[in-house]
Amino acid sequence: MELVYEAQRAAFKEQPAHKGKLYTSGLASIVRHPNWLGYSLWHAGAALVAGSANVAAGVTAALGLYWILPKKQLTEHMSRRYGAQWEAYCKRVPYGIYPGLL
To answer: Which residue range(s) make up the domain with 47?
Structure first.
């Protein structure tokens, strides 16, 4: 998921007409942080495959590591960097990580 998202974003950023613009297409049109969605799914899947009695702990750790902890810092950074573009994007794509949930 990260590879697909980063390839999409890189192709967008390579075009001079997109200089200073926020990438909002592809996977980013579904959630604001496709990388974190992929990471959290990977961690949850790894916990399930391991058959651990602590599957809930694995899912919670994935959410905490990739959503709760850096969310404020990233949101502030993106808001400073992209201003009105970021605000409009947040209104259009309300979910940070999980479509329909968070």
So the answer is: 24-92
